[in-house]
Records
---
Amino acid sequence: MESIKQKAVPLSAPGLPDFRNLGVMLRLLLAVNLLALVTVLLRVDDPALVVPELVLTGGRLELPLLLAALVLYLAAPRLARLGTQGGRAAVFVIAALAVVASFPLLEGASDVGAVALARRLAWAMGATAACLFYFDYRNRRYSPALTEARLLALTARIRPHFLFNSLNGVLGVIRSEPRRAERALEELADLFRALMQDNRDLVALGDEVALCERYVDLERLRLGERLTVRWELDDGADEGTAGSGAGSARPLLMHALVPPLLLQPLLENAVYHGIEPASEAGEVVVRIAHRGGELRIEVDNPVCDGVRHQTGNRMALDNIRERLMLFFDLEAALDIDAGNERYRVCIRLPYRSART
């Protein structure tokens, strides 16, 4: 049996921010402009001259800043492969080249000389060093939170009721169907091996889907025909793929990078709150779509009378929401639509490919 192997893919080199992240770019632009404001306040004695001087400084600053931000965005995958020191050196070089390239455009034919260029280069190097220090400090500050979120994820996923129910399901068929019970035990061991892996980096969506299919197979041991899972997969190329399995999904969608253990806890909550308490069969629908640089994941399950979703799965949803923030900052979101008949969890995050 092929085991589940979740290959982690880091977004950036250690000590460097992910320059493709919207939150990182917004903080970068804000930090540099704040440094410009501090510089003006220290240089100007007359309060009446602060605003005109700030406008003049901002006019000279925005073009090289936006140019450097654009190059950093485009070069982010290569920076991640340079390592920490190489990546930092490349950031300094990009900042310096942005200042040099924009200098003639800003000054025109005026004779400002090399002294002014050297002064701006020195300011740019100082601002770059300050920004890198800030992002490195922020990463170090959030490292304990990331570790705590990882431990909470592992604790929340390995629930006693899931382990006991899975083992009871295996015991129920071990005499009548020993081969099926043996296969189920292998799947259970494989699933827990994946759950116990290091969860600090992103993994391919295909690995997450494979893990979830193993989990659904285990749940079917005890729920039987009461549990149906329908996968609706769409990579944006055409009409997509729908069915009870996800094996026919397109490679473009399956290579999308997602946080580990993103789908399985959502499926577990859908089964635990929407299928298990019901007396009749029910269907869980998993929709995954890639549209315009955004990956959208929805898990939709029926609502049973007397079952309160908010109490049972708040830990899992809060855990996922926190990990989305740590991985994607402002670019990801988790929304809940709790209707009278269906309960839906929707996750939106930026599309990034493991093949980049």
Note: DSSP finds eleven helices and eight strands in the chain.
---
Amino acid sequence: MSIQEDHRRFRDIVKGRIKREFKKYVSQGEMIGKREEDIVRIPIPTIDIPRFIYGPKQSGGVGQGEGKPGDGVNGEPQEGQGEAGNSPGEHQLEVDVSLDELAEILGNELELPKIEPRGTKIHSESIKYSGLAPVGPEGLRNFKASFKEALKREISAGTYDPQKPIIIPIRRDMRYRSFKPTVKPQANAVVIYIMDVSGSMGAEQKEIVRTESFWINTWLRKHYKGLETRFIIHDAAAKEVDEKTFFSTSESGGTLISSAYNLLKKIIDDHYPPSDWNIYPFHFSDGDNWSAED
């Protein structure tokens, strides 16, 4: 079995462990702090290699009668029996999992609907190496293709000696990787987070917001590589802030939800026409509002 197959099997085992404990991982905010760019470190129980181990010691057995008063119960440690052991304890292994893999597991476990992006008026250009050319920079020289051309030339000229297979490419044998730009339509998406930061929103509620926004971003970034994020906080008044301020601000004022929605509408009208953008607003609040009519 190749090392690639071993690695694939290991990744399948890891995904299986994550799926079984998925609800725990979804609710754990500490996992957000273990991010490194597009990778998340997830602690899972150590995956042991199958091996033979000794069974537990047994006391008594079939046909040896009933126990007597004062006999120790099987498996119950007795005074003076505590000795150093030679077996390893249980450990946890931190496994690197990409955000795309987490998003795939999230979608499968929660049976999330497939997103159908709208708006493809913006195009992105990428470079794809798709062929060979007789000229090019040395950094793009394809050595295998160059030696094949030299071999064909020597065979056709009758100078190739199988007993002394020495192949020396010359200038006209050189081949270089060639590329051409490809243009792809790119769907655009923005997620706009709104949070009530009035005095009624405590640290526990904000931690829930942080965890939930992490999973929302993970899911949406799988479908939109250029996802934009905007942040609005509000009490009686609303304002746009950066991500750090969004999660660290607390106010003591009252709550007017309409102030946040008015700012949300202005941001969308000014920057994100719905015909071209996929817009995902999320509002986090404890539900308290100054007026039921607001």
Note: DSSP finds seven helices and nine strands in the chain.
---
Amino acid sequence: MRYYDRIIHYSLWILTLIGLVFIFSGYTVPRLIYYLTYSGDTAYLLQAFKPFFNLLPMLLIGFAFYYGFIYLDRIEFFLERKPLGRKILKKISRIRLGKFINILVWITIFLMTIVWLEKFIFHLKVNRWLLGPQKKILITGLTILSYYLFLSYQFAKDKINWQKVLGISFIFLFLLLMQPDVGTSILLIFSFVTLLFFRFFKLKKVVYSFYFLTSSIAVLSFFAILNANVKLQLPNPFEGTKFGHVIVRINNWLDPFRDVTASSYQLANSLYAVHRGGIDGVGFGFGYRKLYMGPTVHTDFIFATIGEETGFIFAVFIFGVTLVLLLRLLVISFRISNLFEKFFIILVAIETFLLAFINAGMAVNLIPSKGWPYPLISYAPFYVVFYIIQLGIVQYFVQKRFYEVY
């Protein structure tokens, strides 16, 4: 019998398969139609499947780590039977958890520094890629994973080294803002503040804070709906700088049809798509608004494709699966007594909630647009591999504390 959590396991597979299906619909189907109707060029046919050439290897790597964590006891048993395997296990056992996390953190900082330097070397206005000019190897997922491990480990100590915690946090935020990557910076700050509540406040206060947060989001969303007729716009003091797009996105949220041929083009088409889908959608593959949404149709705005083709009912199903995954992570975290494991699982739950809410919320203009992927559904190969690894680490904790969880 495998001691792992079935709810997390099946939620992971369901969301991953849904993601593959809608990436195919959003990106591949229009290009296949063009190939069959107009082109006939084999190169264009291969171009239609380009996302899968990038995504599938990353999924294989992610699931290899995921199942590696689940079957870790069998892997150790196999290695112990071999002389070389025993040497490997002996060396691994000497590496303490804190040392491993520190090494991972400094490797991440080194890679983030390379990303920052590439922006100046290649004269790039924005760079979030390890190979900037080619836009390959995004390290956002590694940044989140290493920071979560570091934060969980430090907060689990009886006496927290605040100089180290704040120093590493400052370095992470500085390097992210230099890219600039405001979204990931917000995610890390929110995760830090939330973990502070869990570490130093009673559960009752944490629950009240969660209610306050969700109520604030609801008020903001309600304000956006009321403002549809007022069309309030904010001045942009950052115009012409690398942070100018932030105010532009807020203004697009306040009035999504202010500039439908330029800055609010994708958002307006997303709203058209969701409206056209209605309750039950127009049918898989039959959405046409995805033809006007450019490169974000299978990434940031994949929920617009889902809403148009399968409608509100299937969108609610996806929300339901995500909610089940989120609640299961929270339940496991509250049942586990080890603070490091508890805090890490809480952080994964925070990440799941924020990314899912923001990705779906911006597709229907409840909140300002932000380029965050929907966990396991959006096309984000270098992010999804580390998210799956995070869930694999959670499964490893479940195995260790199986009788606490169940």
Note: The mean pLDDT is 82.
